[in-house]
Amino acid sequence: MVLGIETSCDETAAAVVDADFHVISSIVESSIDQHRAFGGVVPELAGRAHVTTIGPVVNRALVEAGLDPHDPEIDGIAVTSGPGLIGSLLVGLSAAKAYALAWGLPFVGVNHLEGHLFAPLLEQPGLEWPLLTLLVSGGHSMIVLQSGPGQHEVLGETIDDAAGEAYDKVARWLGLGYPGGPEIDLLAQQGTAGSLKLPVSMTGPDLDFSFSGLKTAVVRATQRHGDVALADVAASFQRAVCEQLLRKLRSAMEAHDVKGVALAGGVAANSALRAGVEQLARDFAVVAHLPTLEMCTDNAAMIAAAGLYRLGAGAASSLGLSADPNWQLSEV
Ligand code: KG4
Ligand code: ZN
User: Following DSSP, what letter does each residue of 21-69 receive, concatenated?
Assistant: First the structure.
């Protein structure tokens, strides 16, 4: 059994996962309420929140797994060591090192994005490779080809904003709350997508994305048509984002013979994107892996799963490991 710890952004999370990738316990505490007023995560506040929350969250994860929180019978510890906010990463990493030292256990630093890639495996243990995954969150947007667990190749990624970041920025422009993704998604379901003419960016043959032009287009279009309903703006924006994401994913499916297609990251909660990926899976006669909401967003079970794999492969870290706020998935 592996204890996973995740503190890369505003969620303080701990989880216990067993050798068969069963989630025994998973606790997530978010400091998002402290950030709402600022329209985005304030790194200093997130770091401070992790300091007070990490101990109790780890305790709860161990107790809920039926383990003694003072001397748990586990085999290792996995912790996100990048990418993310440096002040937040350091809290989880320091805690993981302290527990590893106190309990005499191996620990491993895990890449947060690799963690997201392990999420579908936790809910569908019989999952077959190769797999194409669209990983879309507030910080990242990429298409990844996975030939097996821990074996991944980034086929394309955003050249500017992440998809979730675009949602959050457009929501802010429209006067909606933070995070903007869920609010726009809900509103979009009551609007008409053709109401605003918005460009679908990056229509070339490569698999990269771009969302900053779309955000500017929404600003311009709403300035020009002041009377357009909010729901119609949301629906038009959502369609433009999903069309770009799904078009590129379709191109990747055409170029690679895979057994399944998966969604990962916070934006994977999006209703239109989920429907689009299900359709894509039907078109190519492959399995669609759509993790539940709890597995899409940041959690420690996915970190424990990646750690289970890495520790199993003999990749334990030394206590000298430092956090890397810019750790790229392609460097793993
Ligand atoms: O993966 P995540 O929880 O955190 C990281 O960025 O690592 O993703 C959060 C992002 C936010 O930008 C949020 O607006 C977006 O996911 N999001 C959504 C939806 N739910 C969350 N975006 C579009 N539609 C949604 N339903
Ligand atoms: Zn994430």
Answer: --EEEEEEEE-HHHHGGGTS--HHHHHHHHHHHHHHHHHHHHHHTT--T
Instruction: Indicate whether 61 belongs to any domain.
Output: yes
Choice from 137, 246, 302 to test ligand 1 binding pocket (greatest atom count within 8 A of CB) = 137
Instruction: Decide if 123 is inside a domain.
Output: no
Residue 56 makes CB contacts below 8 A (sequence gap 6+) with none
Report the alpha-carbon distance of residue 129 to residue 135 in Å, rounded.
16
- pTM recorded for the entire structure: 0.94
Q: Count Cβ neighbours within 10 Å for each residue of 110-148 and write b for 16 or more, e otherwise.
A: bbbbbbbbbbbbbbbeebeeebbbbbbbbbbbbbbbbee
Write the CA distances from 139 to 16, 136, 157, 248, 259, integer angstroms: 25, 8, 11, 19, 27
Answer yes or no: do 135 and 282 share one domain.
Answer: yes
Residues 278, 299 within the same domain: no
How many C-beta atoms surround the C-beta of residue 314 within 10 A? 8
**Binding site membership of 115 for ligand 1 (Cβ less than 6 Å):** no
- CB count within 10 Å of CB 289 equals 23
Going from the Cα of 225 to the center of ligand 2, the distance in angstroms, rounded, reads: 35
- The pLDDT tens digits for 78-126 are 999 999 999 999 999 999 999 999 999 999 999 999 999 999 999 987 7
Q: Are residues 319 and 232 part of one domain?
A: no
d(CA 195, CA 56) in angstroms, rounded, equals 49
What confidence score (pLDDT) does residue 203 get? 80
Question: Is the beta carbon of 41 within 6 A of some atom in ligand 1?
Answer: no
11 neighbors 297 (Cβ within 8 angstroms): yes
Cβ of residue 164 lying under 6 Å from some atom of ligand 1: yes
